[in-house]
Amino acid sequence: MNSTVDIAQTALAPVGDVSLLGLFLQAHWVVKLVMLGLLIASVWCWAIIFDKTILFSRSRSAMNRFEQVFWSGQSLEDLYRSLSQRQNSGMAGLFVSAMREWKRSLETPGRSFLGLQARIEKVMDVTIQREVERLESKLLVLATVGSSGPFIGLFGTVFGIMTAFQSIAATKNTSLAAVAPGISEALFATAMGLIAAIPAVIAYNKFNAEVSKQQGRLEGFADEFSAILSRQIDERMAA
């Protein structure tokens, strides 16, 4: 009985502040917990969005610069020497990993070109997979918040409305002025869920498309570079 009265007092307490902060401070502790969780999730999502925006922008720029240098006519050996001494990712990392396998095979005593093409393609496939994993990291967080955020907010709303109806039963006061504050607090939880979920869903779809686009560029370059090395392998085997 005391718990019911406490709920009623919480839900029907006089509302002096109808701002968002006021609604939060007057909400039940369960609804507050839901709101805080959604706020933290929203901040986390925005941090990921900014981080991924910068990452994809830098990755695109690096690919453009590398393609410009690669197709400028510079020898593969010179390009490999300039890139092998630093940390590489993206298309440059793909080139370095393939050239490293190429040079290891050439420097091995009693070298054989049998299977070299398959080994180079395997190395490039693994490098592409690692690059895709790097680009996709943390996108699962956006997908999770985007799919579960509205339901978490709905849970806060349902709990808040249940609290409001319990207060009506305890006080027998059905006036709109008495019920509206509790319902407003409950609906605020749903709004928080949508605020967290909508940007997360939009960003996830955008970044997922960007990952596919960059993966396609990497696979296209791998096919072209594999063809170049295949011609060189044929020339050396014929010599």
Automatic annotation (TrEMBL):
It comes from the Bacteria. It is found in: Cell inner membrane; Cell membrane. The keyword Lyase does not apply. The chain crosses the membrane at residues 29-50, 139-166, 186-204. The keyword Cell inner membrane applies. InterPro entries: ExbB/TolQ_transport, MotA_ExbB_proton_chnl, Tol-Pal_TolQ. Residues 117-219 form the MotA/TolQ/ExbB proton channel domain. Pfam families: MotA_ExbB (PF01618). It is a multi-pass membrane protein. Keywords: Cell cycle, Cell division, Cell inner membrane, Cell membrane, Membrane, Transmembrane, Transmembrane helix. Its main location: membrane. The Tol-Pal system is composed of five core proteins: the inner membrane proteins TolA, TolQ and TolR, the periplasmic protein TolB and the outer membrane protein Pal. They form a network linking the inner and outer membranes and the peptidoglycan layer. Belongs to the ExbB/TolQ family. Part of the Tol-Pal system, which plays a role in outer membrane invagination during cell division and is important for maintaining outer membrane integrity. This is Tol-Pal system protein TolQ. It comes from Labrys monachus.
